[in-house]
Amino acid sequence: MDAWEPWSVGGGPSARELVQGERVIITQAGVGLYEGNVKAAARSCGIAVLTTHRLAYIDDRAPRLHSAFVRLAQVRQTEHYAGFLRSSPKVILTYVCRRRIAWTCALCHTFHDAATLDARCTQCGAVAPPTDETDMARVCSACTFANHEELTHCEMCGTSLRTDDPVVSLKLSFRQGGDTPFYLSLREAIQARAWTLRTLSTTPGVSIAEAQTSAPGATPSSDALADLHVLMRRAREMVDMAESLRAQLDHRSQAKDVGHVDTMLQSAMVQLGLEAPAVTPDMVRNEKAYHRALARELAGMLLGEHGLLGPGYVVHDGTVPPAESPEADTRCGLLALDEVWGLWNRARGVALVPPRVMRAAVAFLPEVTCPRVSLRVLRSGWTVLHTPRFEDAALERRVLHYLDEEDAQQSGLTTSELAAHERLTPVLVKSLLESIELSLWDARNALVPQCHPV
């Protein structure tokens, strides 16, 4: 029997000629079919169309007469021949030819000469009734277990399931190239098995076109994953766009007049999360330079007019930082490392930084920040980034100053009150005080002479 099923289409498949949930993946012109090892004279030049459910051939000269398709569900093996000398590249399929059983829809009485790709009526969308012959074909002769029709061995005992369906070899010759991307798309479509997905319908008897119109959001999960892959491929384009916007903004900043275009460019850069494009490994020459560039990017977010840790600026190569001004450091000056990591990745968008890379970049922060931003692990185990304002000596001086003010009012100072002064949480303030006490205890032990028994 002929493995290719006739498909009467006019030059290309339209949405009406596709089944529910089926979509076109790739097309390639200049394709011919083979009958065994001989070229098929009636199907020697046409277009190969790959959808999520079938592999079709649309003839150039007589599309409604010679167009045909095979079902991806019945493909057992694929092979790619790259071609040699005058031999064209070919895609070879090992195909199982199953019997085409005619059936009539019980709802609208439409006759079908073979099972449809989605096992539904082409007129009303009703599900086709299962055939007893198909069910009995996969009953194990050893243990009588009813297996799925796609299985070749019994799921219970492993006995080979006998089948009378012939296996044939189908060849498609790509005379104008394009065989490699078509073959890769074919393998992905077979692995995705989109024909096994079922779109639920609450109202039986509604046509496929009306169901798709009334529920446009009911897309298969494969479409959602395809959209995710598209977004991931566009990540590099987003970074390139950010670089282009930044270059235009720097070029226009040299002019005196600031117009509407400059405002638009600056707004676009702000929407991307960072003042400059996110640093990626392909922008620098080695890993050390990458970590140093990340440290400068992080420093620009921590220090500045709207910095997370307060005012300051980034120290670039060849610049000498001025003397630090403690009076200007009026903001928080201390944040947990995990909180900074989350805010930084949110600003970077799709170019995420893993924790290991961030720890390597943080080591360069003291070299590129003014005032200096340092990494510190508290006694409680918290890892924080802080400015010199939260070094032990500076915090101790402020605590004594607060106590002197409270002594004038003849009252003490609680941890919560100190946290309100420093704009920190009481738990974090307690950890800082414990670090100060520990450093003072170590200093006291260093000054007290050790007594040794005689």
TrEMBL record:
Keywords: Cytoplasm, Endosome, Hydrolase, Protein transport, Transport. The keyword Glycosyltransferase does not apply. GO terms for biological process: protein transport to vacuole involved in ubiquitin-dependent protein catabolic process via the multivesicular body sorting pathway. Pfam families: EAP30, Vps36_ESCRT-II. InterPro entries: GLUE_dom (IPR021648), PH-like_dom_sf (IPR011993), Snf8/Vps36 (IPR040608), Vps36 (IPR037855), WH-like_DNA-bd_sf (IPR036388), WH_DNA-bd_sf (IPR036390), Znf_RanBP2_sf (IPR036443). One of its GO terms (cellular component) is ESCRT II complex. Its main location: cytoplasm. Residues 9-202 form the GLUE N-terminal domain. It is found in: Cytoplasm; Endosome. The keyword Transcription regulation does not apply. One of its GO terms (molecular function) is ubiquitin binding. Component of the endosomal sorting complex required for transport II (ESCRT-II). Component of the ESCRT-II complex (endosomal sorting complex required for transport II), which is required for multivesicular body (MVB) formation and sorting of endosomal cargo proteins into MVBs. Belongs to the VPS36 family. This is Vacuolar protein-sorting-associated protein 36. It comes from Malassezia nana. The lineage of its organism: Eukaryota, Fungi, Dikarya, Basidiomycota, Ustilaginomycotina. The gene is VPS36.
